[in-house]
Amino acid sequence: MIETGHLRLVENTGAQLLALIENPDEYAKLAGFPAAAGLHEFFISDDVSQWFLDSLRTLPESLKRRWRTHLKTT
């Protein structure tokens, strides 16, 4: 995790990213909160390459991590 005064960057695991694509309710359970509005729709759109989607299922976990951003409210 990387943190500043106003933002927190947290890693998503490959399992979390797959859940975001396949079952957003499961993503919320794994991540501890729901995904931002429209994020699931983006990941299932034609804007996301098939290569990226396939890589989530085949690459080692260490290569699947992506960052998510949290705005700090306090």
Determine the strand fraction and express it as a percent band: 15-25%
Structural class by SSE content = alpha+beta
Neighbour order of strands in the largest sheet: 1-2-3
Tell me the number of strands: 3
Element-by-element helix/strand order: EEHHHHE
Mean pLDDT: 82
Can you give a write-up of this model?
The chain has helices at residues 14-22, 24-31, 39-43, 50-58; strands at residues 2-3, 7-12, 66-71. The relative contact order is 0.25. By secondary structure, the chain is α+β, with helices and mostly antiparallel strands. The protein contains four helices and three strands; from the N terminus they run E-E-H-H-H-H-E. A three-stranded antiparallel sheet has the order 1-2-3. The longest helix is centred in the N-terminal third of the chain and has 9 residues, at 14-22.
What are its keywords?
19% strand; 3 strands; 3-stranded antiparallel sheet; alpha+beta; 74 residues; 42% helix
Quick overview:
42% of the residues lie in helices and 19% in strands.
Write the layout of secondary structure elements.
Blueprint lengths: L1 E2 L3 E6 L1 H9 L1 H8 L7 H5 L6 H9 L7 E6 L3
Antiparallel strand pairs: 1-2, 2-3
Helix pairs in contact: 1-2
